[in-house]
Batch of 3 targets.
Target 1
Amino acid sequence: MHTASTLARVTALAVGIAGVLAVGHVHAAAFQLKENSAKGLGRAFAGSGSAEGDASIIAVNPAGMRQLEGMQVQGDLSAISFSAKFKGNGRKATGQPQTGGDGGDAGMIAPVPAAYFHMPIGEQAHFGVSLTAPFGFKTEYDNGWVGRYSGLKTDLKAIDLGFAASYDVNPYVSFGASVFVEHLTIELSNNIDFGTALAGRVPGYTPGSADGKLTVEGDNNAVGWTVGGLFSPDENTHIGISYRSKVEHKITGGDATFNMPNDSGRTAAILAATQPGQFVSTSGKATLTLPASATFSVTHNVNDRWTVMGDVTRTAWSTAFDKVTIDYASAQADSVLEFGYRDTTFVSLGADYKLSDTVTLRGGIALDQTPTTNAHRDVRVPDTSRKWLSLGVGWTPSANLEYNFGYTHLFTSDPDVRIGPTTNNQGNSLVGKYKVRGDVLAASVNYKF
């Protein structure tokens, strides 16, 4: 009865946090998020699939539940500050300079919560529940900015509710697996240059003189899985290997909303007569695949005070996120978003130092490769590779309670953007450079029953 009531409380906590996640928007390396643990953040997520004492291992490597003590619940909250400022210029389809400002700061500050529950089953089995946000980002520019035909608002978030189980073959070998349900929501918008589309054919129209707007929204639920193993050559060394599947979201009930220029219906009437069935609000469908990833993780206890760890994660962006095609139910031509992402590697090294029986200090560094390239980078995800510098501290006031805090500063280069004229942007082009900055602050509490 005690276990059932505890599980009910954890389920209620998960539902509550899901509501908070529904309004959180972030932008990390591309839009893959590692921010699921304050303890992990403090050491740049080194040891994410092998270190002991962090319930976030349930989501990363379910076999690592061997490293958790008894029944426990953990809640984490990360705050990501992301800044993206553009400086450059654009050209109209005629080659003339484009009007508009730089778009302001397209980034934002966003919360990313996570929650975990662990329960041992007998002497060798474990059960876990996790609620995380593995993908998410948002960029939003000022109205009328110079790159408005390439993007105004981009908002994507994925929320995972996972159920994990593992089995300890012996004190040195464990295997685990989890199944998760992922809820994806996405919103994309950009201006449409009807002035260019009608110039030369209809008197009074010139490039940039009649801006409309397209907004595409959709959501989907899909299922994915994670498998892993934890191997301990001795009591001080732990090696974790895990694989997270790709998740294919088939959005079939999306909405595409076309807003016409504010010209008393003139443009709408012309389009209805010359291009019937196009530029009208309709439904649509698209397939968006979030990538698979594999993680190799090592943790070694040097002595009673020092622990060192490292992680390598490879993410298969190229086979999952090359392009996204939006198929409209009307006569509207498909919209094809070319991303051209490449596979990426994340490498981190970290350490814990036990200052006393109640205080632990942490630090870590990481190299985080972006999937974007100069040839394919766009205004929706103006991403760049970055270096991490992380610090953290843990406080354990009692045997049942633990608090952790972590901070990471991201050192980034300034990525270029070169967008040529396409059918999607009505022949407009954009050239410039972004100034990208990022910081992450996190806190967590863990309670053992």
Target 2
Amino acid sequence: MQLVKHRATVILREHVQAEAELVGRAAVLTDGTAGTVEGVFLDESHGLRISIAGHIGKWPISTIRMLQP
């Protein structure tokens, strides 16, 4: 049980770090969608997904082509 708690803690820590690094930054996705990252979400089948302000939907984080430095 201790191993499961440790893994869950690591996953949540990484999610919080990704949120801190991405939310509020401008991003361009591989399909041309561009805007400010509004949120970061955990998806059990795809991993991290992001939402972009002004666009409906959530995209896999792997589709980020450019991110504001």
Target 3
Amino acid sequence: MRSRRTATGAVTVFRPRTGRSLAAVLVSAAAVAALTGCSGLEYQENICSSGEYPVLAVGSSGSDCVPDKEEPPAGYARYPHGKVPQHVDDKWDVYWRTHTLDRDGKITELHS
């Protein structure tokens, strides 16, 4: 505890408010974590809506979403098994920005 003598000679004692201060710090830290995405509850945007699956444009980095019960339209193909992007900026979404499928279904690197 700290104390201070006033002009009249009285002694004022300052008591630390550790209970309230600690609680305020913890609440503030939780708010910062939640607002900056550090909370572990990070939002990930899906590539396609529910009831759809992603397809890749043959020979380019283009893509689209097709209803589950439909086949890909002309010029599009299903992604190879195990290499289907699920969320924006996930491993496979990033990969297919620089790769594509040729007419035979072979994976090729895109050249800019």
